[in-house]
Design goal:
The protein has about 100 residues and is α+β, with helices and mostly antiparallel strands. About 35% of the residues lie in helices and about 35% in strands.
């Protein structure tokens, strides 16, 4: 008999938990994406893998400024004559995005 009462109480407790989850889904919360914070670094601190990818994809461009985020993503300003391009790479040399 005690087991039956305990089982009933547990089942009742679980149903109240699931009900609260449903109520939270009725009012979804919007989380805004925050921009990464990049700190300026010396260009010789950029990983070789990133520099290799840049030399292949952006032939003739020079790294004019380099920045790194806390999670090892890199923001690089590349210059070629009067053209400046900002590119983003991860530490493995994988392209993330480009801004002109």
């Amino acid at each position: 008999m005690k087991k039956l009462i305990i089982a009933a109480l547990l089942l009742g407790g679980l149903s109240s938990v699931s009900a609260s989850v449903v109520r939270n889904n009725e009012n979804p919360v919007t989380i805004e994406k925050q921009e990464k914070v990049y700190s300026k670094i010396a260009t010789d601190k950029v990983p070789v893998a990133v520099l290799k990818e840049i030399s292949e994809k952006y032939e003739g461009y020079n790294v004019s400024a380099a920045y790194a985020s806390e999670d090892s993503d890199y923001k690089l300003e590349l210059a070629k004559e009067s053209t400046v391009v900002t590119v983003y790479y991860n530490a493995k040399g994988e392209f993330i995005k480009e801004k002109k």
